[in-house]
Amino acid sequence: MKEKVGQLKEAIQKLESRTKKIIIAGVAILIVGAVALALVLNNRPYEVLFSGLSAEEAQQITAKLLEDGVDYRFKDDSTIMVKKDVLDATKAALVQEGYPKSGFTYDTFINNAGMMTTDADKDTYKLYDLQNRIGSTIRLFDGVKDAKVTIALGEESKYALTDENKEKSSASATVIMENGGSPTAEQSAGIQRLIAKSVPGLEMEDVAVFDGNGVDVSEDANSTSNSSDAEEVAQVIEDQIARNVMKVLGPIYGEDNVRVSARAIINMEKLIRETITYNTPEKINDEDKTGIVSKEDLYNERSNTGNAAQGIAGTDSNADTPQYNTDGDTDGAAASSESVSREYLVNQIKEQGQVDPGALDDLTVSVAINGKGFGSLRESQIISLVANAAGISAEDQETKISVASAPFYEEDDGKDEKKGGLADVKVLGIPLIYLLIAAAVLAIIITVIVFIILRKKRDKAEEEELQEQLVFVPENNDEVVKDLNQELQEMQNDRAMELKKSVRDFAEENAELSAQLLKTWLNGGGGDGE
Fold first, then answer.
1. Domain edge (last residue) among 416, 435, 459
2. pTM for the full predicted model
3. What is the mean pLDDT of residues 174-188?
4. % of the chain at pLDDT higher than 90
5. 476-501: per-residue pLDDT in tens?
6. CA-angle at 387, arms to 382 and 392, nearest 5°
7. What does the H/E/C string look like for 174-238?
8. Is 527 a domain residue?
9. Could you give the CA distance from residue 242 to residue 249 in angstroms, rounded to a whole number?
């Protein structure tokens, strides 16, 4: 290999100064052109994604864009811009996830009308453009075949004495799915939110969505907002729980050696509860099973037959034995009945309360510790610490808390940081580093070709020199001529064999580069190797 490199250096040194300059200029132009093309393609114009955003929501959207690997720019504190080629797809993905909750989705102003166009015509053009752009965005949703959007803007009242200043705006969207069905509830809510945020003053409840069969599939704005609110509240609680647990375990193991993840389930339903508590009476003894009586009905009936007491009603006689005079029938029969109905004032406490949305229904916590064990603490002690920090009861801590220890994965220092750069820049979908490699291969090919051409020129010059020597040989000296011709033929054969051997050795020692060269030649000299 060193011999080949030495031969290549020697060949380059033998090149003329002009040839060297041409080769260097060609390689430089190729590299500069590739870099310039990459910079141009990676600095394509940015367009407005969302405008009029609050600072908090702008931060949430940018975090989502970073997670999805989408490049963005800030025009001001409330406007986010992305590249034109990913504008519609990015907008569709964010709208389906509930963004934005503030601001406007599009800048509807266009300035392509002529000087003679009236303001009413310009407003109509804006509306047409807005409807088409919203429809094109909806068509990017999964499974959507076509979408048509119609917007009816509210008009200012023309009467001075009316109480209503402006009619409400409304809109509708007809969505045709590829399978002939209806869009999902999430898609319907996303479409309503997209249209509502595209028109100032348009409420989500004033947007209707229909499928290809004419069925209204609109979603209730309150139900969709509850879902997003539940996620936001859960995120706040999860972050707070994770911080509390980290405050407990961080000083023991180090914050870099502890990972905490909390999962909260929030109930956004509004409940009204009524509770009645009764005070039970005191028990006579342990066998007393009576409870609280609120109402009691009794009925008793008695009858008696036989000799009835007779006599005249009056006072007792003066005898020692008292006598009782009772009335009775002559036949000696008697009957009586008794009916009692009682209502008791029961001692009770009646309470009525309201449970607001946002109640915590469930909470689980997972903790991972770097290492092969838990150090000076036991697993049960760690679970108790986490339970107290997260507010989980002792009865539920075994099922709500998971703790594990294992060595954390460590990346090789410096290797990942060195990656990127040119490898992240693409030209026409091809990484720039590959194009530079192809350019280097092309430069080697050009050098080899120039080397072969110069070698042929040198061989030709030597051949001409021999021919000139043959001119001075006497014509009758056939043996001398024959010897010279044979010598010349052997010289040519030796050079051809030497060149073949050099190429063969180069191919054996650089098989991968030789394959790339052959592929490039077969493709007509293209630099991408495809």
1. 416
2. 0.33
3. 89
4. 16
5. 456 655 666 676 666 666 666 777 77
6. 160
7. EEEECCCCCCCHHHHHHHHHHHHHHCCCCCHHHEEEEECCCCECCCCHHHHHHHHHHHHHHHHHH
8. no
9. 11
328: which residues sit within 8 A by CB, 6+ positions away? 308, 309, 310, 334
Q: What is the mean pLDDT of residues 173-194?
A: 90
The β-bridge partners of 171 are 151, 207
Residue that the structure tokens 């009619």 belong to: 167
CA distances to 228, 291, 343, 344, 485 from 294, in Å: 48, 10, 6, 5, 139
Does 486 share its domain with 437?
yes
Examine the domain organization and report whether 154 and 87 are in the same domain: yes
Classify residue 165 by burial, with Cβ atoms within 10 Å: 0-12, 13-18, 19+: exposed
pLDDT at 270 > cutoff 50:
yes
What tokens were used for 342? 């009682």
Contacts of 365 (CB under 8 A, 6+ apart): 241, 245, 260, 261, 262, 263, 386, 390, 392, 400, 401, 402
Residue 263 lies in a domain: yes
DSSP 337-364: EEEEEEE----EEEEEEEE-S-EEEEEE
Residue 161 corresponds to which tokens in the numbers above?
């004495």
Judgement on whether residues 497 and 449 belong to the same structural domain of the protein = yes
CA angle in degrees (0–180, nearest 5) for 447-451-455: 175
Q: Quick one: 256 exposed, middle or buried, by C-beta within 10 A (0-12, 13-18, 19+)?
A: exposed
Radius of gyration of the chain (CA): 48
DSSP lists the bridge partners of residue 276 as 350
Rounded CA separation 295/65 (Å): 69
Cβ partners under 8 Å of residue 416, min gap 6: none
Distance CA 411, CA 476 (A): 85
Q: How far apart are CA 248 and CA 41, in angstroms?
A: 50
How far apart (Å, rounded) are the C-alpha atoms in residues 469 and 81? Answer: 79
Report d(CA 160, CA 428) in Å as an integer.
61
Range of the domain at 64: 46-225
The span from the CA of 96 to the CA of 92, in Å, is 6
Q: Pull the structure tokens for residue 469.
A: 């020597």
CB 275 within 8 A of CB 350: yes
Residue pair 404/368 in contact (Cβ under 8 Å)? The answer is: yes
Contact at 8 Å (CB) between 371 and 405?
Answer: yes
Q: Which two tokens stand for residue 392?
A: 């989980």
Task: With a cut of 80, say whether residue 518 has pLDDT above it.
Answer: no
Whole-number pLDDT of residue 259: 94
Handedness of CA 46, 49, 51, 54 (dihedral sign): negative
Q: Specify whether 269 is located in the same domain as 396.
A: yes
- 41 with 468: CB under 8 angstroms? no
Under 8 Å between Cβ of 518 and 510: no
Task: Give the C-alpha distances (Å, rounded to integers) separating 375 from 106, 161, 253.
Answer: 56, 80, 8
136 to each of 114, 147, 376, how far by Cα in Å?
26, 7, 61
Beta-bridged to residue 360, according to DSSP, are 266
> What is the C-alpha to C-alpha distance for residues 367 and 383, in angstroms, rounded to an integer?
9
194 token code pair = 């997209």
Q: Are 363 and 264 in contact (CB under 8 A)?
A: yes
Tell me the pLDDT band of 111, cut-offs 50, 70 and 90. very low
